[in-house]
Every structure is written in structure tokens, then in C-alpha cells.
Amino acid sequence: MNLLRRSLTSLFVTAMVALLLPVASSSAAAKISPSSPCGATVASSPSHVVWIMLENEGYSVIGSPQAPYLNSMAKSCGLATNDDATSHPSLPNYIALTSGSAQGISDDAEPSSHPLNVPSIFSQLKSNWRAYAESMPSACDRVTSGTYAARHNPAVYYTNLPSCRHNDVALTKPLNLSAAFTMITPNICSDMHNCPVSSGDAWLKKFVPQILASPQYRTGSLALFITFDENTQSSTNQIPTIVVAPSVPRGLHVGTHFTHYSLLKTTETLLHLPYLGGARSASSMIQPFHL
To answer: What digits encode the pLDDT tens for the residues 245-274?
Structure first.
């Protein structure tokens, strides 16, 4: 009889756990929203990574009244307070971010001047990546025109990406975030390069909620990084990087020294890729930001 009671009790407990687990999961998911995107779940390992690349603003943009939305994200999620870009001008930073090295580039010349047949995060992922470039006239466009800057769209510099014309496309709505890695580059007004900080902030307010409302983010499988290619030509080259994921504690400030190679390493780790170049020795953001 005692054995029967124990068996029935064990079955009852197992059934109750099975019933309660989906409820707990649904409750955690319900807490994730565009207005409350972080601090909602326990640490997890995202399988989708999104970068938003902004331009030429130093760490002083944190606290700026011209960037209320950017600062609201920094307060709601995680902020790297000791992050440096790798160089000046723009292009070497984008190449370093995606290949682990500036590849000897020290200017902003067009892809025709810098054809790169080297490994990159794009080639590592084969076709499981996407790049959105705002105002780009045609897919995988290698020529700067209007408000589209090829130098801000690093995928078009790599000559070993057969899927470039399929995966490197103009920014449109709705966003498709199903790829393992998505890189989003606003045009030269929306990224704060040629227009006021307030213009870029308004752009963020329009697009970031779309990412936060995506199925990938709401299920806890997406991490978003909002960062800058470089600052305003100062020698320190300090930039802010905002880390957004459900597992990131609200208002977290991390003072660990990071670089662009840290962002590459973090992304490669999350996506189970080998490290490229400078990513090998860079500090990871995963543990400090609870990813």
C-alpha cells in the first residue's frame, strides 16, 4: 500500500510540474515588451544576434537631451561604459567588426579599391545572415549614392560571399530577423553622421520597437547591440554600446574594457563560430551582460 501511495504521489507531482512549466514560461514571455525589454527572464543563450550601427558620436551621447530614446534604452537595459572603437575613419572599424582585422585599410574608399577575399562573420555563417542598409538603391550595391554609404555596409567589400545579392538588401518593413546574424545600417542621416543626433534618435524610436516585438525577441532568443563605428575623432575613441536582451538586468552598467573585437567575439560565441583575428584575445560581453 505504501508503495502504491508513493507511486501515485510521484505521478501527481510530475503531472503538476508539467502543467506549471508552460504557465511559468508564458508568464516570463508576457513580461517582455517594447516598453520593458530587459530584466524579464533568467540568463539564456541567444541564437539570433542583431547589430544596429550608428555613426561618429562619442560617449557624450549618453545623457544627451537630443537622444531621449537611446538613453531610455541604456537605462532600461545594459550599457558598456568603457568601450572603444578600433580606429578612424569609418571603414576600418566596419571591417574590423566583421573580420577581426582592419585588413590594412586606413581610408573610406569604395569596395572597388578594397576587394577582400578573407574570412568574415558573413562567410562563417554561409547564407545564414542578413544585412539591411537603409536607402541602398539595389541589393549588395558596391557604389555610394545619395544617402547610402557603401563604407557603412561591410558585406559589399567581401568578394567571397555568393549570397550577397540575396542577403544584403535595402532596409524595408517588416524586418525579417530569422537569420542567425542581422546587421542594420541606417543611411547617413539616420545614423547621426550628417544629421543631428535627434534625427538618429527618432530613427531608433521607429525601428527598435519592431525588433523588440519580433517573435525572436519575445521568445528570448535574440540579443540586440546598438553601437557606433567611431566617436568624433578623439584620441580615446570611446563609444557607447547598449546591450538589449530579456536576460540583461535593467539599468546594468559594465565598466569592463571592450573593443569592436569584443562585439565580434560575443557574437561568434553566441552563434557557435570560431573566433576571427582580434576577437580571439578580446573581452567577451556574455558573462558581464548575463547573455
So the answer is: 999 999 999 999 999 999 999 999 999 999
Three-point CA angle 171, 119, 54, nearest 5°: 35
Give the burial class of 182: count Cβ atoms within 10 A of its Cβ; 0-12 exposed, 13-18 middle, 19 or more buried. Answer: buried
Residue 223 domain-assigned? yes
CA 41 to CA 218: how far, in whole Å?
11
- Domain of 83 in residue numbering reads as 43-281
Could you write out the DSSP letters of every residue in 142-174? -S-BTTB-GGG-GGGGBS--TTHHHHEEE--SS
Q: Angle at the Cα of 264 (from 263 to 266), degrees rounded to 5? A: 65
Euclidean distance between CA atoms 117 and 77, whole angstroms: 37
CA-based nearest residue to 165, from 207, 122, 124: 122
Per the structure, the count of domains in the chain is 1
The rounded mean pLDDT for the chain is 89
Domain of 139, CATH number, reads 3.40.720.10
- Find out whether 56 and 229 touch, Cβ atoms under 8 Å: yes
87 and 261 Cβ atoms separated by less than 8 Å: no
Determine contact, residues 94/131, Cβ cutoff 8 Å: no
Query: Is residue 145 situated within a structural domain?
Result: yes
Decide if 171 is inside a domain: yes
CA distances from 219 to 12, 180, 210 (A): 29, 15, 14
Please report, for the chain, how many H helices and E strands are present, in that order. 8, 9
Three cell numbers written together for 64: 544627451
pTM above 0.70, yes or no: yes
Beta strand 78-84 with 252-254 is parallel
Q: Is residue 122 in some structural domain?
A: yes
